[in-house]
Amino acid sequence: xxxxxxxxxxxxxxxxxxxxxxxxxxxxxxxxxxxxxxxxxxxxxxxxxxxxxxxxxxxxxxxxxxxxxxxxxxxxxxxxxxxxxxxxxxxxxxxxxxxxxxxxxxxxxxxxxxxxxxxxxxxxxxxxxxxxxxxxxxxxxxxxxxxxxxxxxxxxxxxxxxxxxxxxxxxxxxxxxxxxxxxxxxxxxxxxxxxxxxxxxxxxxxxxxxxxxxxxxxxxxxxxxxxxxxxxxxxxxxxxxxxxxxxxxxxxxxxxxxxxxxxxxxxxxxxxxxxxxxxxxxxxxxxxxxxxxxxxxxxxxxxxxxxxxxxxxxxxxxxxxxxxxxxxxxxxxxxxxxxxxxxxxxxxxxxxxxxxxxxxxxxxxxxxxxxxxxxxxxxxxxxxxxxxxxxxxxxxxxxxxxxxxxxxxxxxxxxxxxxxxxxxxxxxxxxxxxxxxxxxxxxx
Length: 444
Description:
- The protein is built from 17 helices and 18 strands.
- With 444 residues, the protein is α+β, with helices and mostly antiparallel strands.
- It has a six-stranded antiparallel sheet.
- Strand 5 and strand 6 form a beta hairpin.
- The longest helix is centred in the C-terminal third of the chain and has 10 residues, at 431-440.
């Protein structure tokens, strides 16, 4: 027994497992890897402070608040597709929330560059510490006012970052127009190593702009158009940015279609047709980036069809414009990668000759639909099962997901042209009518 004990003591011990890497060691220093340090309050110039919530900001900036309330940013957490995606096994929820609930007070745990992952090879869990500034009431604000406008002053107190500093605001202000213009890129064009073999949340919009004919264009120039109005209650009218962020025209709710129409939403795409021979010309006319941009699942479906006088479809052909991906495989480690990209580049005009032949046709109809979620993926979203953490994030979501299509628009018709084959004038369906038609597709 003594000999065995001595032999056991002399046996080599297994090498300790390497510690899990920190966020910075695993991903680098991309800005979206940490929540934004937006303090809970903003200091008043006369002393004291007020909460940096959206509702408080809206008290003095009602126009900005009303626009934000209807925007995609305000729905960043109340987004059925987003919640369903978080329900997938192995998702790094902490990282996804850095863009959808991006400020520290919206986060239950503090995540910093030196926060360690829970285990080597894992990205879906963190050895994080409780966030002392966590305010559960702020979570549902999504991409809230503070995400862009509230930062710390040199003494640690909260201040508002604005485009100008008039000296008349009741709270501290730091004028930094460039910082406001630059922050969009944090989430809409992140740059970092791949998150995981199968996680593709990869937006390259800023890179697309820089590669296009207007490389100096920025997001607010198009997505936050200027309006002459008071920047705050009681102020004189100025040229201020509207907080709309209208994009591809597919809202997060069916009620959002009416809001898009009220705001005069216009697609970035121009469509023209000729009938002899049949040629469809598609032009990225108003976007400084590729069409469509953002989520790699987004694509355009162009349908050309011959119709009879009674509306019967006699022949049709379709064209898909977008990306195609191999989404990877977690078991084998095959990394997701793009296998095709047929999107329209900024300013590009592309001619398409559909294959159509039919006797008795009286008109050519060309319709373009912007697809955000495919029917197949909508079925998967409807089957998502939420755990307790996701139910706490959005309590109503579990009851909405099984009827996903009734609550979440999958696509929007962005253009429809009708060209008589006898040479008559081409009729373009007004955009507001297309939005109304798209909204009706979600009606029970």
